[in-house]
Backbone:
């Protein structure tokens, strides 16, 4: 049980974290802060938070846990603003989609208090944003990755993990570098591709006709392009070195496929398509098996 939690950023992730902990009965009082007064007012009206803090000092005072659920570009400024008010024993964590840059920012902003910061990233989301998008089961059955620092206390790591587990999440641990490499490939690159495809089509002549005939396949492929542009701009820049590497590899693949199409090499195209189909089906089977085990238990 947490007596008091402060949440910076009361949108989808911060709001869902609050709702999930309330639903689990694991927190007595949640204080919220947000750069948007409208979002803060709405979060209070929706019951995501119990109190809208009047200042950073009031929010952090006596908080056992501080959650930073704002776009990653804001993390450094938030940590610096927290530092003067951070009491011994208060744990700080985040929900940012990149970790190496966040860890570097935390070391500068928190200095000798760095042991109190435990980086994290819930692997869950929706294409909608803001307090109204928050739901109390967003993290149920989803992974949350923690990237602990050498300075962190084992008890503090366990407490952050316990908070996420109370939200229904499954805890995984990676280094910050491994986290950024993994998610550049399976999250950041797909978002970039979805945004790029929609932007490319909307700029074409008679784009309205193209969209008129776009059906479920286009909708499914581009769903994530409905996500927050600000958030994904920040993620793209924060993880740009890893993302560039993944993007270069993908561009090489596209050039190979272009040559196959130009040469009408049906066998080569079929081989790529079949390999991708098998890999995706294996991935889906693994997900379904894991979900079945979570429901039924056992090994």
Residues:
């Amino acid at each position: 049980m947490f007596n008091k939690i402060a949440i910076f950023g009361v949108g989808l992730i911060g709001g869902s974290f609050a709702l999930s902990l309330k639903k689990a009965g694991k927190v007595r009082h949640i204080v919220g802060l947000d750069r948007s007064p409208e979002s803060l007012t709405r979060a209070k009206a929706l019951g995501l938070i119990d109190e809208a803090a009047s200042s950073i000092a009031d929010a952090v005072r006596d908080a056992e846990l501080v959650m930073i659920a704002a776009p990653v570009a804001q993390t450094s400024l938030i940590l610096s603003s927290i530092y003067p008010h951070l009491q011994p024993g208060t744990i700080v964590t985040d929900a940012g989609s990149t970790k190496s840059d966040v860890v570097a920012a935390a070391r500068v902003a928190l200095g000798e208090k760095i042991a109190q910061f435990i980086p994290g990233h819930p692997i869950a989301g929706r294409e909608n944003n803001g307090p109204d998008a928050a739901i109390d089961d967003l993290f149920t059955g989803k992974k949350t990755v923690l990237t602990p620092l050498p300075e962190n206390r084992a008890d503090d790591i366990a407490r952050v993990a316990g908070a996420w587990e109370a939200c229904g999440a499954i805890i995984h641990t990676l280094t910050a570098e491994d986290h950024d490499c993994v998610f550049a490939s399976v999250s950041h690159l797909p978002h970039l591709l979805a945004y790029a495809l929609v932007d490319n089509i909307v700029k074409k002549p008679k784009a309205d006709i193209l969209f008129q005939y776009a059906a479920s396949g286009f909708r499914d492929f581009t769903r994530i392009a409905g996500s927050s542009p600000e958030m994904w701009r920040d993620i793209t820049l924060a993880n740009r070195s890893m993302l560039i590497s993944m993007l270069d590899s993908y561009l090489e693949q596209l050039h190979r496929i272009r040559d196959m199409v130009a040469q009408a090499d049906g066998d080569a195209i079929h081989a790529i398509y079949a390999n991708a189909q098998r890999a995706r089906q294996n991935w889906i089977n693994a997900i379904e098996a894991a979900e079945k085990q979570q429901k039924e238990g056992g090994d």
Notes: Residues 120 and 146 are 4 Å apart (CA to CA). The chain has two domains: 2-173, 178-264.
